[in-house]
Amino acid sequence: MAAAASSSCTLRGVGAVASAKPRSAAAPAARSARVAAAAKGPARGRLVARNAVAVTPRRMRRPRRLDPSQAALREGLIEEMKSDPTVCVMGEDVGHYGGSYKVTKGLAEMFGDLRVLDTPIAENSFTGMGIGAAMKGLRPIVEGMNMGFLLLAYNQISNNCGMLHYTSGGQFKIPVVIRGPGGVGRQLGAEHSQRLESYFQSIPGLQMVACSTPYNAKGLMKAAIRSENPVVLFEHVLLYNLKEKIPDEEYICCLEVAEMVRPGEHVTILTYSRMRYHVMQAAKTLVNKGYDPEVIDIRSLKPFDLHTIGNSIKKTHRVLIVEECMRTGGIGASLRSAIIDNFWDYLDAPIMCLSSQDVPTPYAGTLEDATVVQPAQIVAAVEQICQ
Amino acid sequence: MAAAALLRRLPAARAPATAFMAARPISDSTATLTIETSIPFTAHLVDPPSRDVTTTPAELMTFFRDMSLMRRMEIAADSLYKAKLIRGFCHLYDGQEAVAVGMEAAITRSDSIITAYRDHCTYLARGGDLVSAFAELMGREGGCSRGKGGSMHFYKKDANFYGGHGIVGAQGQLFEALNISALWKLPAILVCENNHYGMGTAEWRAAKSPAYYKRGDYVPGLKVDGMDVLAVKQACKFAKDHAVANGPIVLEMDTYRYHGHSMSDPGSTYRTRDEISGVRQERDPIERVRKLIYAHDLATAAELKDMEKEIRKDVDAAIAKAKEISMPDTSELFTNVYKKGYGVESFGPDRKEMRATLP
């Protein structure tokens, strides 16, 4: 039975800070408390009982550690790879290097070079390879070092990933997870600050989710791996080091469900990924000003969770969408359209959508800040909607 | 030569830096020197050029100066990055200077160059100035891309330098380029700066054949010691003559980067510190030229040291100047999206009505 004692997952040997030590001197493969307890000795590659327990008194006295998102993602990966031998990872520098954002750190030591495959720099080819492997029965996770690089694999993602299940009349399924960090970071330049969710959203056959907290990162990762459909998991460059306590017990987040972040009465604010944090920051100001915003992290970018969204709109009658996509053709544009189609009668005000500017992301810090939506703009928008 | 030797016995001039440089007769000498490259060239489908490279003392001094300037700039960029004045991604070129410098010695500014994200020194070699480079790195409006590009997006149109690109690597595109340029006999030189690591992955783990100069298959290739600026110059001269006459050629520059892939990469998790210091000791491009300068009596150690000190001052001055340049104004966010202003007008079918401005 999962002990009630520790509600934090202690991952030892894995930190948010990149280690400068040579790989051979790195700490052994990351294990959660329950896995480590059950292992009792070198557990490399061994399948470990899922609900193993044993939290020792000494561990209870250890200070509680909060999990950064990349560790939560890693934990989800490890759990799925341990329970299903067909799950494998492929991408650039995912194996020996441990991943450019450390999401796959230690996995190559645990599962071997074939299941954690270092590919050459050839996105189009290794995405195609992942899709082929999925057609053959494996469950690959294809990592784009940065989402922007996956543009080089667009043909594979659109034509093969999205279409093959349909064009083969249902014969082939593509249970692939395509994941990687995207979004506007800290002055990474135009090509490394792209928001591909707006480019991929039209591809039929593809499912898209965006994680935003360590909790939903792990849950969505697990759900995406288990899904029979191709899922694109959008992580964000700036959210890898956010920390949160996550449950010891196994859990999954439903891929198609939105997350209620803050219930409220006055206005529904729909957001996802990094903008969630800007919205919550604005929410603090709004609460001080007497507003009661309802904040929903939509999480599922394709399809939209219109059930949760609709119920919220029926309550508040006002909608503000806050996204990091560009205004033209972004997720917000589609969401707005879907809300108008379905919930027109419940709206008391026009839907407002705050998006990034339609410009390549500039390098200069001041310009970059002006490109994305800032909390002050969110506050102003809510005040305008609630007039 | 006797007059030159006499001048060297005089005490070092106390004149200001520029005057000091102008008073160096040895640096201006255009007497021919023939120097052998470190190793012979290895060739694929073509006869390699000779190992004997003709150069002049003036050129060697220029090589030393340019490479030292590049080295100094990259090291200064390292400090600026750690001081958080440069943000984002910063890929440093130190160790590879000979490639940029040797290449420029063999081509002209009307020949075009395009490269990837490790472009600071290529920009400099194409005639870019230090202040614009640092200003761009620090995101100021005086930068070569007006602060909007950053480290990976340096360009210089008037020098035919086409950048500066962040997303690279697609091998399929390489073969497409080889095929098309060979088919149409385009005067293209495909240079592989082989620093042996693709970020954290060693070349033997990512490439079936490490002989990149042979990768062109039907396209001839040359393997060059990329740490020897004279070899690079010879190879590029040979390649340019070949390309203009016969079509594409591949050049593999065997070089090395001392820093990690970028400032976010320590550079020591996938290679040993011994390897890095070994290359620095045995093959450093600047040291090689320094030894040549001594061997041919072109300058003394003190003179070279003074030159390096002056370079250091120049770089520091450029950084100070760049720091004073302001950040771009917020209105700059919307400039240069399209050629004719931010909004592009769209017309109706008869081109008379329905004017709308697209975002």
Automatic annotation (TrEMBL), chain A:
Domain of life: Eukaryota
Entry's EC annotation: 1.2.4.1
Keyword Nucleus: no
Residue intervals of the Transketolase-like pyrimidine-binding domain: 67-242
Catalysed reactions listed for this entry: N(6)-[(R)-lipoyl]-L-lysyl-[protein] + pyruvate + H(+) = N(6)-[(R)-S(8)-acetyldihydrolipoyl]-L-lysyl-[protein] + CO2
InterPro entries: THDP-binding (IPR029061), Transketo_C/PFOR_II (IPR009014), Transketolase-like_Pyr-bd (IPR005475), Transketolase_C (IPR033248)
Keywords in alphabetical order: Chloroplast, Metal-binding, Oxidoreductase, Plastid, Potassium, Pyruvate, Thiamine pyrophosphate, Transit peptide
Gene3D superfamilies: 3.40.50.920, 3.40.50.970
Cofactor(s), names only, from the UniProt record: thiamine diphosphate
Matching NCBIfam families: PRK09212.1
Quaternary assembly: Tetramer of 2 alpha and 2 beta subunits.
Summary of the function given for this chain in its UniProt record: The pyruvate dehydrogenase complex catalyzes the overall conversion of pyruvate to acetyl-CoA and CO(2). It contains multiple copies of three enzymatic components: pyruvate dehydrogenase (E1), dihydrolipoamide acetyltransferase (E2) and lipoamide dehydrogenase (E3).
Protein name: pyruvate dehydrogenase (acetyl-transferring)
Chain's gene name: gb24312
UniProtKB/TrEMBL annotation, chain B:
InterPro entries attached to this UniProt entry: DH_E1, PDH_E1_Alpha_Subunit, THDP-binding
Entry-linked Gene3D superfamilies: 3.40.50.970
Required co-factors: thiamine diphosphate
Pfam families: E1_dh
GO biological process, one term: pyruvate decarboxylation to acetyl-CoA
Keywords: Oxidoreductase, Thiamine pyrophosphate
One GO MF term attached to the UniProt entry: pyruvate dehydrogenase (acetyl-transferring) activity
CDD domains hit by this protein: TPP_E1_PDC_ADC_BCADC
Location of the Dehydrogenase E1 component domain: 170-328
PANTHER family, A to Z: PYRUVATE DEHYDROGENASE E1 COMPONENT SUBUNIT ALPHA (PTHR11516:SF60), PYRUVATE DEHYDROGENASE E1 COMPONENT, ALPHA SUBUNIT BACTERIAL AND ORGANELLAR (PTHR11516)
Protein name: Dehydrogenase E1 component domain-containing protein
Protein species of origin: Eleusine coracana subsp. coracana
Gene: gb09775
